[in-house]
Design goal:
Length: 231
Amino acid sequence: MSPSQVTIREVLTGTAKPYGGPGKPGKQSAIDKHPVGAPVAVGTLGLQGDEQGDRRIHGGPEKAVHCYPWQHYATWRQDIGPLPVLERAGAFGENLSWAGGDEQDVCLGDVWRIGSVTLELSQPRQPCWKLNVRFGREDMSALVQQSLRIGWYFRVLEPGKLQAGDAAVLLARPHADWSVARLAGLVRDRETDPELLDAVLALPLVDSWRRLFERRRQSGAIEDWTPRLRG
């Protein structure tokens, strides 16, 4: 997929609302995103008007803008059925509906220009239990992780404005060997090979991903996914 073929199909924001259902009282989430028709200002903490239910886990400079490939929706409808939540963009809590390319085609550290905003790909998205609630399936977060149809996050290097229909232009690719799919695949595939983990730890990882791989490197053990995937 040529980087020149990437278009932002929709720009979406959401507000934090009570979320979680039985057994998760007091939880809030802004995973329910809706399209914005006008140009949106984007700062270092994300899109104007966008919220996060729990800033300890979501949002912040390293998760300022969440992208999800629109082409995955057709595959999900084949895999789990034509659910209402899959009828429009925003099902996965994304801010940018990315039309053109997927996790195989974008890499850690990529620098992209969208509108007047410059963004750097900071990390893959690690799916959590809120997807289970949103899709009405207890295994949805696990399915997303297994499929590697996970999406990714950008940090904001230069604030500005963007809107639906803008092209995403690749400016730099310093780590062409490390696609989002490859990096996330190490988590999914329970990789503990010391040589490979050393190569990963040489990358400019965000703190949470660095800690994950450092623990694997030191212990040879795999982290417990249950709190993240099941809540």
